[in-house]
Amino acid sequence: MYEVDFLPVGDGEKSGDAIALRFTNPETGLPAVGIVDSGFRDDGEALVEHVKREYGTSSVDFVLSTHPDLDHIGGMGVVLRGLDVANLLIHRPGQHGYAGNSGDTPAEELVALAEEQGTTVVEPFQGVGGVGGAVLIAGPTQAYYEEMLAAQEVTTKSASATASQGFFGRAGTAVLAEARAVLDAFPGEIFFGDAGGTNPRNNSAAILSLLIDGEHILLPSDAGVPAITQALDFLDSQGRTASVPRLLALPHHGSRHNIDRETINRILGDPTSGWRGTVVASVSSESPKYPSPRVANAAGRRGYPVYTTAGSKFWSHSSDAPARPHYSTATPLPPLVEDDHDD
Asked: Which of 22, 97, 225, 240 has the fewest C-beta atoms lying within 10 Å of its C-beta?
C-alpha cells in the first residue's frame, strides 16, 4: 500500500513543493510516514494538518529536505514543530567547508531544532536508506554535492536561468499562455535537449527512490540531467529500475532545463499506446509557465498522463489504499501545442 500526496499551496506565480507519503514498511507490514520538502510556510502548515487528518498520526518516520530553496524548505520549521519526526535528512554546506553558502544558516537552524526534539539528523547522500529498504537516496554522492557547492561559489544562476528570465518576462508569459492551446493528439516527437541545463543548487538536490510492493516511485526534486543521470546509474546497480516507475514527479515543475528526451526515454521507456503510470508536476495555478509542453507531451506519449497540482492537492495511490470519499477524480493534461521557446 502506498499514498503519495502533493500539497503545494503556492504563492502567486510561485509553487511550493511539499509531498506527504504513507506506505507499508516491507519488513514490519506497518504503515510508515514520510515528508519530502515543505514548500513555503503555508505548505508546511498544510502538511502538518494533512498528516494528522488523512494519516491519523503525528508521528513521521522521516522528513527529507532535498535542497534549501525557499519553495522547498520554507515550511520545514513548521513541520518539525508540528509533528514528531524520527529522522531529518538534510544537507549541511558548512560541514563541507561552505559555511558561507546561503543554505547553511537555514540548515543549521533546522538541525538545532531537530536535535532539541530528539530527531536523528542524517545527510541524504547516495546510498542512504531505510524503512525496510523501501526508501533509498539515489543522489547526489557526497563528492558531486561538494562539486555543486563549489560551483555555487562561482555563480548563483545558470546561463539558462538568466536567458529564460530575459525572454520570459510579462510578454513571454502571454506567449506561453497561447502555447497552451490543446490538440486532439500528441504531435510527432523530435529530439530536444535540456535547453542549457539548470543551476548547481538544483543539481545538488537529493533524489528519492521509493520501492513499495515492487512498484517504483521516483522523486527527483529540482535536479537536472547530470544529477538525474548519476542517480539512474546508481539505481540500475541496485536493481530498482528493472521496470519503469509507477509514479514520477517531473523535476522543477516540469521545466525543460531539468530534463531532455534521452533522460525521459531512460526513465519512462519508449513511446507506447498503453498506460504505464502517472506523472505529476507541482505548479501554481497562476503561472502558465510549467510544465513545459514538450516535456509533458513526451511523458504522455510514453503512457504517463500528466497531472498538475495547480494549487490543489493531488493524491496518487495504490489500489489497496484507504478510500478518501472527499477527494474527486483528477483530469490529466491534454496534448499541448509545443513551441521552440517553451520552458
From this structure: 97
